[in-house]
User: Fold these one by one.
Assistant:
Number 1:
Amino acid sequence: MIQVDYKAMVQGVLDDIDRRLTDKNIRMENIRIDELARAVNYSTWHFSRVFLALTGTPVMAYVARRKLAHALYDLSRGKRVIDVAMDYGFETHAGFTRAFRKCYGCPPSLYHLHVAAQPPERATIESVKKMMHGGIAMQVRIREIPPFAVAGVTSRHALPNVKRSADIPAYWNTLKVDCGEHLTRVYDAFEPARHGEYALCFEVDEDMGEFTYLLGVAFDDGTDEANLEPDMRKAEIPGGLYAVFATPKAPSEQYPQSIADTWAEILTRWLPASPYEYDDARLGFEAYDERDHAWLHDGMAQMDIYVPII
């Protein structure tokens, strides 16, 4: 009796899918489950069962996610969304965005802003099985928060053209070089009732690769809007349901990487596997309280990331 090496068969299929996705002479929509099954001499039904049993993922759900992984890397290298959508078999920009939201639970612009896309590594059965499970033990709370406002200094920036996740902390550090000066001005202008800073990214222009960054404090009721200087803005946070993630405590030199890694875990693993999706009708934000001051906590720093969810 011939022993079938199912693992070798499935690994061969994973390699073949990547070959097809990186061969620009092959139309992306031609990757079909019946075609993959026929290539390994199995019925579609039997092939589907074996693939799901070994990887924990349905065949076409994996193909869709792998397409998006390759598309994200192309976006990170400066390609236009519509061009990437067409390259990978999505007929329109909207179709690509819908597929991305279905897979990741958030719009591609949010993912691109916070996660450094890298060339997809070779997929293995084990890596596919781990795809939906996080690597950071995150503290998450689901909270309903009341509306509030934030006021602070704004600046316009280009999305980082990164090729590896190690580039991200350096990028955010350069963005925040003038934090001390900005925050001094903001606290003097608005005198908030409670200490703590907020950071928001919004007005993302996918085609131009730009976004607005706001660093500020709570804008309390009764605060005079006349105190807003020309480079300052007030942003309304409408409240509602949020997933709140505390970053792991980290020494100062590793703190920016800890924040970047937590964003990556949220958007790559937690959100796609959760029963929620990102509500892009509301703003997400980062909140920094006294835990952000490493010198008060034996050199360890921590902050919260608020993700609006449905």
Number 2:
Amino acid sequence: MPPIENISDTARWIATYRAMESERPDAIFRDPYARKLGGARGEEIVATLPKAHDSSWALVVRTKVLDEIIMERVAHGVDLVVNLAAGLDTRPWRLDLPATLRWVDVDLPGILQYKTETLAGETPRVRYEAIHTDLTDVAARDALFAKLGATASNALVITEGLLVYLETEQVQSLARALHAVPSFRWWTCDLANHRLLEFLNKQWGADLARGNAPMKFAVDEAESFFAALGWHVVELRSALIEAHRLKREMRMGWLTRFMVRISPIKQAEEVRRMSTFALMERIEER
């Protein structure tokens, strides 16, 4: 069996990383559902995908940083969270969120049904809803956004682990569709630049392509790219810097930080931007 058979396998893969972190005595977050959700398939992926175990730090850091961004936005009045390509994310169950918050997971039927069945008997902390939608169906996507937007005044959209699997034109289309909804005020996501995308494709490209889940999208200048689509980058956190803060650096991370410090400014910035976590605010039309 290939390491990745389909796009939904990537959700089991990431759930297993969350389980590995949660089982550490010094865990930076706890996800009591991750091991069960990742299951034997997730464990197999981590065991067989080349260097998958060594790469767990990046996804653990991503989880923690987006946790922080989400909690901060909710504390400042977000009334709806829309999690696109939600996969096996468990934040509605594990984060200390207000019971009044409405949270909508959007993804393909198979993976959301699997999550619902696996978490049967567990109670989310929020007003939770799972909606089955293929986000590549533009008409269905836009109709769903309009429907959800009409129910909120200050929404946060999450696209964790999604954009890298899209074509550039699909990311542009998604950004414009989100901006078209006035109540979709905030958007948080993770981004890779072209240097990282090239590295990831050398490491996992063949395995992901066989599973029909190739990594495609990268952006080097997130601020200008998203500004043209109606989004202002409020925060852009470097995974390398956040990993050091959270004490979850990759092997030889200290050497990478040293090389960044002594590198020319342009090269150092390119390395810092290899993997980033963005919080964006909707640019109001005038």
Number 3:
Amino acid sequence: MAEDEFLVRFLSIFQDIANTVLHQVDNLPHVFDPAVAPDDMVRFMGRWLACNWVDSSLPDATQRDIVRRYSQLLQWRGTRRGLQQLLELISGQPAVVTDSGGVFLEGESSGAAAHVRLEVASVGWANDEDLIDIVKSELPASLTFELVVAGRRVWPPVDDGSGGAPSQLQEVR
């Protein structure tokens, strides 16, 4: 049988297919590792983790780092620690998060709506609008928040008194 040229070529087709399948199975764990996964898979993992705000124009290494670090932040999503680390991930700068929350005995809370103040020195690779959208997606819906970037209040919008659309920027003193 080994001397039959047709049979050898015919069986080599199946051997090639089997080798391809084995190669894919052997590499399967690497497909889900942001450090070595194909670029498209990294972006897919980001969307799967609800990190669909990653800018695809960023360098691939930056996108990989964001997806890897964001996956570690998920356990802290919506908390002060999670918000601070997220802002630091996006901006590359230290961030300060203060909130009005706490644990109260029944009947002892102030009853005021919970509020969070987020301060960061830079928007990093994002822009103001992107950062606002990211923060909105990370905070619980019942919270109000104030976002300050490099001393400018970018959220909530401020009415500048002109009767037109509110200005989104205000110097914070």
